[in-house]
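My main concern about presentation is that the manuscript never shows what a single data entry looks like. In essence, backbone conformation is discretised, so a fold becomes a row of integers matching the chain in length. An entry of this sort, consisting of the sequence and the corresponding backbone structure tokens, reads as follows:
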Amino acid sequence: MTRSYELAGEHLEFWREKHHCTVTSLKSDGSPHVVPMGIVVDPGAGLAFGITSGRSQKVANLRRDPRVAVCQVDRGRWSTVEGTAEVLEDPESVADAVRRYAERYRQPRENLERVAVRITITRVIGNV
């Protein structure tokens, strides 16, 4: 296993494998809200992307407090990216996030309430 603090080499390859993640946002009382979600990284831009329903609890949390952590695990290998999230509702941003998601996972089902979550990555840790 290689310990890494950047999305490069084996660490980046791990993020290109098909794993779902847990996304942790903060509830209004400061306690963590952890849910599964598909996330795609763009290391060149220092960003990560996801799609979800605009009515979800994580979206409400991120609109109030943009701090977020995303972790993916495969047995003993793991990686976490931390950062700040923006919830984007414009059609171009949502379409871009859907395209990225479909490239890593599969074409998502239709969702008229879909929003994009764009995360500016500020920290990376993990063992892969």
Observations:
- Strands lie at 3-4, 21-26, 32-37, 39-42, 47-53, 67-74, 77-88, 114-127.
- The longest strand covers residues 114-127.
- The mean pLDDT is 95.
- The chain has one domain: 3-126.
